[in-house]
TrEMBL record:
It holds the Pfam family Epimerase. Residues 10-156 form the NAD-dependent epimerase/dehydratase domain. This is Nucleoside-diphosphate-sugar epimerase. InterPro entries: Epimerase_deHydtase (IPR001509), Lipid_A_modif_metabolic_enz (IPR050177), NAD(P)-bd_dom_sf (IPR036291). It comes from the Bacteria.
Length: 296
């Protein structure tokens, strides 16, 4: 436990969601005093004894009550495009834009000067959702410009809950492990609490540690590279029908490492090593879900 964080109260909005529950857990482990806010309490039993505030971010009075008394806010509450049944564009806009505006207003009213905002790799494209993240980032930039608050804007890649094998395949595409989402967010929380940044933006993505020559020609070189990292994995990729992309997208994440001390830990090599272990034990991996995740 980091004693420096003891007694520092952090509000997490959308705390009952997929990212929220993992972030809340990690923030608690780091010593933060976590207040959870959501329209419904968390299902996770281990979070059940934490402070929970029922809050619809579209309702300013709810938000005001949730933010009051907090030193920092991690604003996650939003609807995205991967929910079943789908959420309407109207609701996505209202929660993601009006809701974020209300959280900004409450932060200004209560002098909250440390904020982490869940943005997305969908920033600016693909419809209403992507636009709501543009507006969200701008609202938080305004909060910095008008109050001097320290703000981190994290553009997460895809961590929507998936079956284990689909999750492994997704890591080679636009996916990121939820554990890396949580560690990036808590690293950013430390960064904004210490006012290390004015407005800091980072992509939150996987790093496979793969040479650019392999990433750029993955269809030709990927199987051999995987097999070199985890012997036997070429055969596993075939047997479990894991399709390889033609190229693997990799981002330069060195700034997040330099500024926040964060780097992703879970890539395709970890997945393949885990798959090999499970396969050797004769486990039925087709019925598993990604680590720590369950169907929505
Ligand atoms: N899941 C992804 O792949 C992904 C990728 C990029 C960015 N993001 C962003 O990360 C954040 C968390 O995503 P997630 O996948 O954990 O989502 P999630 O749907 O699992 O959780 C979102 C939470 O927000 C809550 N919520 C919805 N409307 C609310 C309201 N009006 N007031 C209060 N709470 C409300 C929901 O009850 C839910 O618990 C979101 O901002 C999302 O846009 C997610």
């Amino acid at each position: 436990m980091t004693s420096a964080q003891q007694g520092r109260r952090v509000l997490i909005t959308g705390a009952s969601g997929n990212a929220g529950s993992a972030i809340a857990r990690l923030a608690r482990e780091a010593g933060f005093d976590v207040r959870l806010a959501d329209v419904a309490p968390p299902n996770d039993h281990d979070l059940g004894d934490g402070e929970f505030v029922r809050c619809d971010t579209r309702t300013p009075a709810d938000v005001d009550r949730a933010v009051r008394g907090c030193d920092a806010v991690v604003h996650l509450a939003a609807w995205h495009c991967a929910h079943e049944p789908p959420v309407s564009d109207e609701t996505i806009f209202a929660v993601n834009v009006d809701g974020t505006f209300n959280v900004v207003q409450a932060c200004r009213a209560h002098g909250v000067s440390s904020v982490v905002f869940a943005s997305s790799m969908a920033y600016g494209w693909g419809g209403v959702y992507g636009v709501t993240k543009v507006v969200g980032e701008d609202l938080w930039r305004m909060h910095h410009e008008t109050t001097g608050a320290s703000v981190a804007l994290l553009r997460y890649h895809d961590f929507v809950p998936k079956p284990y094998l689909a999750w492994g395949a997704m890591l080679l595409r636009n996916g990121v492990d939820r554990r890396d989402v949580a560690s990036a967010t808590v690293a950013a929380l430390h960064g904004v609490m210490e006012h290390k940044v004015d407005v800091f933006r980072s992509i939150v993505h996987t790093d496979h540690g793969m040479p650019a020559s392999v990433a750029g020609h993955f269809a030709d070189q990927g199987r051999a590279w995987c097999d070199e990292q985890v012997p036997g994995s070429a055969e596993l990729l075939d047997r479990y029908g894991i399709e390889l992309p033609t190229q693997v997208e990799q981002h330069d994440l060195t700034e997040a490492d330099r500024v926040l001390g964060w780097r992703p830990r879970y890539g395709i090599v970890d997945f393949l090593a885990d798959l090999r272990r499970r396969d050797a034990r004769g486990e039925d991996v087709t019925s598993l879900w990604a680590p720590g995740q369950t169907p929505e």
